[in-house]
Amino acid sequence: MSRIGKKPIPLPKGVTVKIAHDAVEVQGPKGKLRQAIPPGILFAQDSGTLVAKLERDDASLKKFHGLARSLVANA
Predict the structure, then answer these.
(1) 32 with 75: CB under 8 angstroms?
(2) Which of 1, 27, 33, 72 has the greatest CB tally within 10 Å of its CB?
(3) Is 8 left (phi over 0), alpha (psi -120 to 50) or beta?
(4) What is the model's pLDDT at position 57?
(5) Are 37 and 74 in contact, with CB atoms under 8 Å apart?
(6) If we measure between CA atoms, which residue out of 14, 38, 37, 36 comes closest to residue 27?
(7) Burial class of residue 23 (count of CB atoms within 10 Å of its CB; 0-12, 13-18, 19+)
(8) Which pTM was predicted?
């Protein structure tokens, strides 16, 4: 697993997150963004943080783990 992908994403106050199967929607005071995520990467919301997880332990998915986490964190 990626070291970047393991880090939880803290959610600031006023930010809401909707997790869909193929994308994550982030809405805050400055606007709304929708970030597509690669298949096989799952996001879960847990007590004010967002965590990226692998659907299965596959070498082809590991390269997208940190990428997906970074893209959602920047949203």
Answers:
(1) no
(2) 72
(3) beta
(4) 86
(5) no
(6) 14
(7) middle
(8) 0.86
